[in-house]
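User: I need a structural model of Right handed beta helix domain-containing protein from Cystobacter fuscus for a docking pre-check later this week. Nothing fancy, just the predicted C-alpha cells so I can convert them on my end. Input:
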Amino acid sequence: MAMGLMMLLSGAATVRSGEAEAKQAGVQCGDTLTASTRLTRDLSCPGTEVPALRIAGAGVILDLGGHTVRRVGPETGVSEGLRVSANSTVRNGTIRGFDHGYVVGGESLPSPERVGLSGLTFIDNTVAVYNRGGDTTLTVTDCRLIRNGSGLGSEQDASRGVFEVRSSFFLGNRLALSANSHSVDVVGSTFLQNETVIWCPDGDVSFSSSSIVQNTVVGDLRLGQFGYGACREASFVQTVLARNGSLAATDAPVWEPFNFVLRDSWVIENGGELLVRARTVDVQGSTWWGNGSGLSLADLPEYVPPALTGEVSGNLFLRNQGDGLRVLVPSTLTVSRNVAIDNTGWGFHVPGVSDGGGNVARGNGAGACVGVVCSAR
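Assistant: Understood. Predicted C-alpha cells for Right handed beta helix domain-containing protein:
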C-alpha cells in the first residue's frame, strides 16, 4: 500500500521487476515500464511529446486490461500513446487520439528486433502503428484499426523491417498500410472503406486469405516515386478484391511492381482501369468478373526493360468492360487454359505471347482472340 501511494504521488514512476502487482493500480501518464503490467483503469493523457506510457524492459507484456489510453486536450507536440524501446508485447485495449498511437525505435537505444501487438483497437490516431527507426519485425494480431490517418507507417529513410498482419480489421483509414522500406505480409485480414489500402514505394506486399472490399483505392504501386525505389512484389493469394472504387490510383491507373502474383483470387466489380507493368507475372486460377476493365499487362518503364515473362493460366475473365485480357508488348508470357466470356472488348488481345493452348472465348464484343487460338466451347 505504501509503495502504491508513493507511485501515485510521483507522477512518473518506473515499474520495476517484482513490483508490478503492487503498482498496477497506480500506473500514470508518463510512466516507464520495465516489468510486465496490467492496467486496471483508463488513462487520459495530455497531448505532449512525453509518451503516455513507455516500455523499456525486454520481455515486458503490457496488458491494457480492456482499458483505453487516450489523448485529451490539444496537442502541444508530437503526441505518443506508447513508445517502445525493447522487445515486448502490448495487448487487450484501445489507443485513441494520438499523433502516433504506438511508436517503436528511433531512440539512442538499440531498436527492438521484434514486438507484438495483440487484441488492440487503434482509433482516430494520425498514425496508429509507427516504426520510427531501426530494423524491427512488428506482428499485429487480432487488432482493429479504425479512422486513423495511417494504419501502419514508418519513418522515411530511417527505418526498415517487416509488418506481419494477422486476422486484423482495417476500417475507414486514410491509408491502411505503407510498405516503405518494409515488407508487409497480410494473412486472414479485412480491409473495408479505407481511402487507400496499400502504398508501396519501396518494399513488397503480400495478401493471403484476406478481403479487400469497398475501398476507394486498393493500391498505389508506382515505380520510382522518390526518384528511386520500387515495389518488389505485389502478391494476392486466395484473396477477394471486390467493389472497390478503383484498383489503382485514379491519377495513375497502373501498378508497377517488379513481380506481380494473383493466384486463386477473386477480382469482382471494381471500378476504373488497371494496367499492371511488371518484370514477371504469375496470374493463375483467378476470376476477374464485372470490373471497369479487364486485366492489361505490359513491361516496366525502365531504361532497358527486360522482357515480360511468366504465366497467365486457368483464369476466368467474365463480363468486364474492355478486353478480358490484353498484353501490350511482345513477351515470353505463356497464356493457357483461360476463359473469356461476355467482355465488351476482345476476349484475349495478346499478340506476341506464347500460346499454351486450351483458351476459350465467346460472346465478347470485339471478337474472340488475337495472339492465341481459342475455342468457343
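Before docking, keep this in mind: The chain has one domain: 32-375.
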